[in-house]
Amino acid sequence: MSLQHALLTSLIEKPSSGYELARRFDKSIGYFWNATHQQIYRELARMEEKGWVRSSEDEGGRPGKRRFQVLPSGKEELTMWASTSSDPIELRDEMMVKLRADAAIGPIGLADEISRRLALHQERLRSYQEIEVRDFSQASLSREAQIRHLILKAGIAFEEGRIAWSKDAQAILQQ
After folding, report:
1. Exposed end of the chain (fewer CB within 10 Å): N or C?
2. Tens-digit pLDDT profile for residues 123-140
């Protein structure tokens, strides 16, 4: 996946200025695809060069503020990309290598790091659960909302799995 496809998706949902897009990105797609604000602005410029988005002066906004919207060629690109197959994610976590090192050379003091990570996963889970209560409590949801909820549930399941794994790791490391 590329950042450009994530940005196209977000802009189709709601045309925005770069600043608004970056803020919305942090609170939605940013949970599973990270990007700095600088990266977002660079990609918006590239996407405009490719003819995927158009920016215009934001009327009523501050001078120089640009609002981006997706052009038909951007929607075609996103449709083409989204319809291609993709492989599941591969785990690449340096903590797994550190644990192998601990197993190979003896205790190296990883319990504190596992505890720190556990707290981070617990905080992220709380955040996801708050979003779920706030945004998905209604009895009937639109198809779009159901898909967004499905994405959130994947994040919840991931955090629950990491919490359970971290607790198992703590128990073993503290032996």
Report:
1. C
2. 999 999 999 999 998 889
54 CB burial (10 A radius; 0-12, 13-18, 19+)? middle
Cα separation, 119 vs 99, whole angstroms:
19
DSSP conformation class of 146: H
The pLDDT confidence band at residue 108, using thresholds 50, 70 and 90, is: very high
- 66 backbone dihedrals φ, ψ, rounded to 5°: -105, 140
Q: Residue 10 corresponds to which amino acid?
A: S
- What whole-number distance in Å separates Cα of residue 49 and Cα of residue 43? 10
Long-range contacts of 165-173 (CB under 8 A, 24+ apart): 166/114, 166/115, 166/117, 166/118, 166/121, 167/118, 169/99, 169/110, 169/114, 170/111, 170/114, 170/115, 170/118, 173/102, 173/107, 173/110, 173/111, 173/114
Within 10 A of 52 (CB to CB), how many other CB atoms are there?
Answer: 23
